[in-house]
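pls ignore typos typing on phone
iron/sulfur cluster + seq
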Amino acid sequence: MASRSKSRNAPQGPSPFAVEADALPEGKFTDPDITADGSPRAQVPLLELETLWLCTGTLCNLACATCYIESSPTNDALIYLTADHAARYFDEIERDGWSTREIGFTGGEPFMNPHFMAMLKDALSRGFEVLVLSNAMKPMRRHEAKLLALREAYGDKLTIRVSLDHHTKPVHEGERGSNSWDAAIGGLRWLSDNGFRIAVAGRLLPGEGMVEAREGYAALFERETIRIDAHDPSRCVLFPEMDADKDVAEITTACWDILGKSPADIMCATSRMVVHRKGEPAPRVVACTLIPYDREFDFGETLAEANVAVKLNHPHCARFCVLGGASCSA
Ligand code: SF4
Ligand code: SF4
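k done
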């Protein structure tokens, strides 16, 4: 993968969201079928393709300290998806009768992709609900007129979810770099003032409770007159931490009963993501938004090929999805 070169305003210090845990010991998350202690590893079948994510490319105007996909202004490990490639997947959904409700666009920063507005319009015009993950900064603001037209035509079918890592400026900028707060708040306020369906994605600091965090976001939204109910978990999504290098328990088939969870609750039971890696002739379908580079989670070029069970052989499966209970969809 291309190395990340930092943007001018990239954060200098360690991430305020750094995971506090020992290093991941050798031997864990190696065999796709068996955990380090010899137990059968948990799997998640694809029950329904409710959400298809399209990664528009890794290029981003920011270089956040712990960006899970390692985006930056220079990392094009995942190249820009084209509108034609996106349309192939929309066609496949329609042709094969997948019951897909939602198309999610993520990056990088989707609005930096020159083909993005075309694929956004295509998805909406085919009747999908659309969720766009954006940092709401300059790249998005360049498309205000077109976005207003889409809002006029498709209303609440379009949701824009803005990453606001924390409800305080110093923590947000500790992760995202200096000068990232005011622009994000400005973009969020523009979306709110213009009647877009919006949501915010944030994170919990180590030791910060959910109640405390939601109160912090509620006070911020009131102060900035942003129309989001911070107590609605689908509109103010707060994610657990991820760090593939830190120790975490592996998930075995026995864990479902022990934890009172079902494979059906896990994100890859109902979603897949399309990525186009640099140097490859066509996009590929991977298990989920969190693991774009690992070949073990790459299922082929078509949705039909990706209709297989996912073996939970990655630390993100454990920390973020099963133990953290998180999903990228609103
Ligand atoms: S804005 Fe999002 S995609 Fe861009 S570097 Fe930050 S976390 Fe990564
Ligand atoms: S990280 Fe991805 S593959 Fe692993 S459990 Fe979560 S959604 Fe599934």
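The chain is about 25% helix and 15% strand. The chain has one domain: 47-247+268-309. more later
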